[in-house]
Design brief:
With 252 residues, the chain is of the alpha/beta class. The chain contains twelve helices and nine strands. Bound molecules: S-adenosylmethionine.
C-alpha cells in the first residue's frame, strides 16, 4: 500500500490508512478494528461482547453512570461525549424527557447509535460529528457531561485537550460524570498477573499512561485555567478498584 499523509501530518502506511480520513491518527491507527471498521462495529455492539470486555461489569458501571447523571440532575442540557457500545445512550434517553446531545468523530459510530433507538427517541438525540479535542459547542452550554470509557483510549495530549474542552462547555454548577479504569489497579489480580496486563496494554496502548494520571488534579488544573473551580463529589469503585465512576461538579 502506498504511503500518504494523514490529516495531522503523521505519515501512514498499512491497513489503518484506509480509516484515517477525517479521524484522529491514533484512532485510525490503534482502534480502527474496534470503532471504524464496519464488521468490528457490528461485532462489538452486542451486549454480551461489551460485557465480556468489561469483565462482566458493564451493567453495574452503566447503571451507576446513569444514576449519577440523573440523580437531582442540574437543570440544562446533557452531553454524552462520544458514543459507547451497549445500551448507554438508549438508557439515557429513556431516563430523560428532553434532548440528549451526542458527539463523536466517527460517522459510523453515530449511525450505529441511531440504529439502537426507537423513532421517538431518535427525535430527541441531537448528534454531531466532531472531535472531542475541539468541540464546536459554546462555553457553558451544558449542565451535565458524561464520558464513558473514552479517556484511557486517548494519547496524553488528546486527553488533556478533551478534558479542557469538556470543562469549557460545562456551565458553573454543572456535573461531570466519568466512567473509567481506576487509578493504577495494583490490588486487582488482572493487573498483578503479567499476561493479562500485557494483553490489555497491547489492546489499549494508552492505558498504562492513563493509570498514572491523577484525574481530579488534572481536572482541577484545567478548570483553574478557565477561571472555574471543580470538586469531586462522589466516586464508585468496582471489580477491586479496576473500574470507577467519578462525579465532579463545577462551583456555581
Ligand atoms: C467512548 S470510547 C470507548 C467506549 C467503550 N469501549 C464502550 O464502547 O463501552 C469510543 C468512542 O470514542 C470515539 N472517539 C475516540 N476519540 C475521539 C475523539 N478525539 N473525538 C470524538 N470521538 C472520539 C470513537 O469514535 C468511539 O466511538
Amino acid at each position: 500500500m502506498s504511503s500518504k499523509q494523514c490529516e495531522n501530518s503523521v505519515s501512514c502506511s498499512g491497513v489503518w490508512c484506509r480509516f484515517s480520513d477525517g479521524h484522529p491518527a491514533y484512532l485510525a491507527r490503534h482502534y480502527w478494528w474496534a470503532y471504524l471498521w464496519r464488521w468490528g462495529v457490528w461485532f462489538f455492539d452486542h451486549q454480551p461482547i461489551i460485557n465480556a470486555i468489561l469483565f462482566g461489569q458493564y451493567k453495574k458501571l452503566s447503571h451507576r453512570a446513569l444514576q449519577d447523571c440523573m440523580k437531582s440532575r442540574p437543570a440544562g442540557r446533557l452531553l454524552q461525549l462520544t458514543c459507547a457500545y451497549g445500551s448507554m445512550t438508549p438508557a439515557l434517553l429513556n431516563a430523560m424527557e428532553d434532548e440528549l446531545y451526542l458527539m463523536d468523530v466517527a460517522e459510523i459510530q453515530l449511525n450505529a447509535t441511531r440504529k439502537k433507538l426507537t423513532d421517538a427517541d431518535k427525535q430527541r438525540l441531537l448528534c454531531a460529528r466532531m472531535n472531542a479535542e475541539f468541540l464546536a459547542y459554546r462555553n457553558d452550554a451544558f449542565a451535565t457531561v458524561l464520558i464513558f470509557f473514552l479517556l484511557h483510549e486517548l494519547p496524553p495530549d488528546a486527553r488533556e485537550r478533551s478534558i479542557s474542552e469538556a470543562i469549557r462547555v460545562l456551565r458553573p454548577g454543572g456535573r461531570f460524570v466519568i466512567t473509567e479504569y481506576g487509578a493504577c489497579p495494583k490490588k486487582n489480580l488482572l493487573w498483578r498477573f503479567y499476561p493479562t496486563r500485557w494483553v490489555l496494554q497491547h489492546l489499549e496502548p494508552f492505558l498504562e499512561r492513563f493509570w498514572q494520571v491523577d484525574l481530579a488534579a488534572m481536572l482541577g488544573e484545567h478548570a483553574k485555567k478557565q477561571g472555574k473551580v471543580i470538586k469531586q463529589v462522589d466516586e464508585f469503585h468496582c471489580f477491586a478498584e479496576f473500574y470507577r465512576v467519578s462525579v465532579f461538579e463545577l462551583e456555581p
